[in-house]
C-alpha cells in the first residue's frame, strides 16, 4: 500500500507540472527548456531537422524599420546616408569642368605638359656630354663621373612613387608648382659645385622633384580630354618625353663645347624655369580637387 500511495503521489505531481507548462506560455528565450520538442535531447536522430522559428512575447518583440543603411527596395544595390541635395558635382555644360574648357586652352595645357616633361628627362642625358669636363675639373675617373646619371634615374624612380599620390590629395597644380620650383633650385648647386659629392646629391634631389611632371602629366591629359581624343592627346604629349633623352646629349654637347660643362646645368635652369611658369599659369585639372573647393565654398556660404 505504501508503494501504491507513493506512485499515485508522483503521478499527481507530474500532472500538476504539465498543466503549468502550457504551450501558450513559451519559456524565456534566454534559457532553453528540455520540454522543447526541438531541443537536441528530444530530436529524432534519424529524422531531418527542421528550422525552428523562435516566438517572443510582446515585450521582447523587435520590429525592423527601413533605414538609409538597410534599403528595403530589392532593386537598390547601394545603401547611402547622403542626401542628393548636398552632393556637389559638375553640370552638363559646367565651365569649371576641365573637359568643357576651350580647345585652344586644353591644347596649351598639352603643350606645357609635354615641354615640362621633356625638360625633366633631358637633364638626365645632357649630363653625359659634360663627363670629360667633370673628370678634368675634379680629377675623377669616368666611372665616378657617370654616377651622376645613376643618381638621377634613382631620384626619378623614388620620386614618382611619392609625388604621384599627392596630386590626388591636394590637386595637380600645387604639386607642379612646388615640385618644379624645387627642381630649378636643386639644379643650381650642380652648376656651381666644387666637388663630385655635391653634384651626386643635387642631381638626386633634382630628379626627385622632376618626377612630378613625369608621373602626373598623363593624369592631367586624362583630366582634360574626352575618350575619343585621348589617344591623340597622349601621342602628341609623348613626342617630348620620348625624344628628350635623345635631345639631351645633342644640346649638352654643343653647350659643353662652346660654354663649358657648368653651362649644361644653367641651360636646364633656364628651360625648367619656363616650364615652372607654364605649369603655374594653367588651372587645376583634377576634377575631385575642383569639386572639393566648390564644396568648401558652399559650406562657407551656408
UniProtKB/TrEMBL annotation:
Topology within the bilayer: Multi-pass membrane protein
Localisation per UniProt entry: Membrane
Region ranges (Disordered): 1-80
Assigned keywords, A-Z: Membrane, Transmembrane, Transmembrane helix
Keyword field contains Phosphoprotein: no
Record-annotated Major facilitator superfamily (MFS) profile domain positions: 109-302
Main location: membrane
Compositionally biased tracts (Low complexity): 22-35
Any GO molecular function: transmembrane transporter activity
InterPro entries assigned: MFS, MFS_dom, MFS_trans_sf, Sugar_transporter_CS
Keyword Transmembrane helix: yes
Gene Ontology CC terms: plasma membrane
Transmembrane feature ranges: 104-124, 144-163, 175-194, 200-219, 231-260, 266-291
GO biological process: export across plasma membrane; xenobiotic transport
Protein name as catalogued: Fungal trichothecene efflux pump (TRI12)
Organism of origin: Teratosphaeria destructans
Source lineage: Eukaryota, Fungi, Dikarya, Ascomycota, Pezizomycotina
Amino acid at each position: 500500500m505504501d508503494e501504491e500511495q507513493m506512485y499515485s503521489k508522483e503521478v499527481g505531481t507530474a500532472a500538476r507540472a504539465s498543466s503549468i507548462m502550457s504551450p501558450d506560455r513559451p519559456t524565456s528565450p534566454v534559457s532553453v527548456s528540455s520540454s522543447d520538442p526541438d531541443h537536441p535531447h528530444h530530436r529524432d536522430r534519424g529524422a531531418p531537422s527542421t528550422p525552428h522559428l523562435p516566438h517572443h512575447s510582446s515585450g521582447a518583440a523587435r520590429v525592423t524599420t527601413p533605414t538609409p543603411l538597410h534599403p528595403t527596395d530589392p532593386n537598390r544595390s547601394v545603401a547611402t546616408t547622403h542626401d542628393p541635395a548636398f552632393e556637389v558635382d559638375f553640370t552638363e555644360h559646367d565651365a569649371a569642368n576641365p573637359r568643357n574648357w576651350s580647345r585652344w586652352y586644353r591644347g596649351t595645357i598639352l603643350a606645357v605638359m609635354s615641354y615640362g616633361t621633356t625638360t625633366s628627362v633631358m637633364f638626365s642625358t645632357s649630363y653625359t656630354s659634360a663627363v670629360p669636363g667633370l673628370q678634368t675639373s675634379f680629377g675623377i675617373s669616368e666611372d665616378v663621373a657617370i654616377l651622376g646619371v645613376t643618381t638621377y634615374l634613382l631620384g626619378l624612380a623614388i620620386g614618382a612613387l611619392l609625388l604621384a599620390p599627392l596630386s590626388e590629395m591636394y590637386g595637380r597644380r600645387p604639386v607642379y608648382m612646388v615640385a618644379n620650383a624645387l627642381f630649378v633650385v636643386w639644379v643650381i648647386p650642380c652648376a656651381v659645385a666644387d666637388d663630385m659629392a655635391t653634384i651626386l646629391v643635387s642631381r638626386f634631389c633634382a630628379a626627385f622633384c622632376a618626377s612630378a611632371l613625369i608621373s602626373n602629366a598623363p593624369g592631367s591629359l586624362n583630366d582634360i580630354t574626352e575618350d575619343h581624343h585621348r589617344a591623340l592627346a597622349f601621342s602628341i604629349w609623348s613626342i617630348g618625353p620620348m625624344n628628350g633623352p635623345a635631345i639631351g646629349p645633342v644640346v649638352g654637347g654643343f653647350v659643353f663645347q662652346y660654354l663649358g660643362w657648368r653651362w649644361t646645368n644653367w641651360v636646364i635652369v633656364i628651360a625648367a624655369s619656363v616650364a615652372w611658369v607654364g605649369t603655374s599659369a594653367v588651372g587645376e585639372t583634377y576634377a575631385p580637387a575642383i569639386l572639393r573647393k566648390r564644396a568648401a565654398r558652399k559650406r562657407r556660404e551656408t
